[in-house]
Amino acid sequence: MVWVSLRTTRTDRRAPLCTPTTHCTTMSLEWLMDWSWSLDGLRDFIATGIQSFRDCDATALAAVACLLVLFVWYCYHVGREQPRTYATVNALMQSAEANGVQNGYVYCHSPECVRCTHHDGLNQKLYHNLQEYAKRYSWSGMGRIHKGIREQGRYLNSRPSIQKPEVFFLPDLPTMPYFSRDAQKHDVELLERNFQTILCEFETLYKAFSNCSLPQGWKMNSTPSGEWFTFYLVNQGMCVPRNCRRCPRTYRLLGSLRTCIGNNVFGNACISVLSPGTVIAEHYGPTNIRIRCHLGLKTPSNCELVVGGEPQCWAEGRCLLFDDSFLHTAFHEGSPEEGPRVVFMVDLWHPNVAAAERQALDFIFAPGR
């Protein structure tokens, strides 16, 4: 079937788009309504367009050329922009691969890393980073951070043994070993709603243990007894690409958390596995600016977390929040038949660290700075 124009002739259809008096005009609505969608009509339309282009003056052509140049420049500019922290999984994976990720685990190559190295010049380095941040942005809201860096040595040396962060102490934060679920309610509820998703991806990963002692991507940690394995998605503020590819839904979930620490060396997200008979030695975390969240995936009996001398038990599908700058330990004294204790661990901001402070701390403690 061919549609035929009811009112116009071929001469009508060839009416020029640009008249001698106005150079460039638009086609009338009536002309469009009466268009014949035949092959002849298509040919006539192309011929009309070519003729209209020829009739247009130099000013119109220059305007079109400028718009085309601006469009090309815009595409180039957008293409060169760096992706945001959780913009896409692949973008972060490529970034992390270029920053020293090997065998599914991030290795620190910098002798100046504040997370891993203790030295006399640490306070000067932190103060220099703070000054650089303030010059770029503002000193507004930096009072506690400035106070903390200025007197860091005194804070760390005079802290009671129950709470002694190894790297950085931010003063005037509320101090308690455990936090209520309401401290970061949105993120806690989001993690708990996705309990089955995280559990399924862990179970797929854990099947590899039947084939070898330590599958790729897993890290074995030092313990007085037993075995403690971790599978990092984010380690010290950096994505671990191969691991994220194997847990894509869990990794995407991190991007939906409002308070996840993902841009500085104090931020981690991993699956933590304790085999029966394992005891983790007592230790302190690096800072009090975060709270550590454990989502129970598998929680056999006789497993406990002890923070600041206070014991707590995990529960499957439930989050447990604590301040790991307190002296803490964990153990699994269950039978081998009960299997491992498994939690999904993610570091969240302490609820009393303000937004301006979070931005500054991300800058000061950026990975590799």
UniProtKB/TrEMBL annotation:
Q: Which UniProt keywords apply?
A: Dioxygenase, Membrane, Oxidoreductase, Signal-anchor, Transmembrane, Transmembrane helix
**Cellular compartments annotated:** Membrane
The UniProt GO MF terms for this protein read:
dioxygenase activity
The Aspartyl/asparaginy/proline hydroxylase domain is annotated at 192-351
Q: What Gene Ontology cellular component terms go with this record?
A: membrane
Q: What is its main location?
A: membrane
Name used for this protein in its record = Aspartate beta-hydroxylase domain-containing protein 2
Organism lineage reads as: Eukaryota, Metazoa, Chordata, Craniata, Vertebrata
